[in-house]
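REQUEST FORM: STRUCTURE PREDICTION
Request ID: SP-0412
Submitted by: Lab K.M.
Chain count: 1
Length (residues): 81
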Amino acid sequence: MQKASRLGQLVKDGRLASQSILKQRFDAFSEQDQQLIFSCGSGVTACILALAADVAGRKNLTVYDGSWTEWGAGMKYPVVS
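STATUS: Completed
RESULT:
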């Protein structure tokens, strides 16, 4: 899920999709034991994605909670467009 717009594939009417649907979605782009790192603009969407991955059975999960708000706030970290 590289884009927040894909959140709609995991959430409908404010609720996570079923575990089987979530598993299908994550199986489509990652291996079961692959580390997944989630980031977004402020950290909120990244947490929803990580929760969905956890419900799908993924366990090697990381959320960069500072997200772009922290990363892009200064010149400390590289940004490539």
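NOTES: The chain has a mean pLDDT of 85.
Reviewed by: T.R.
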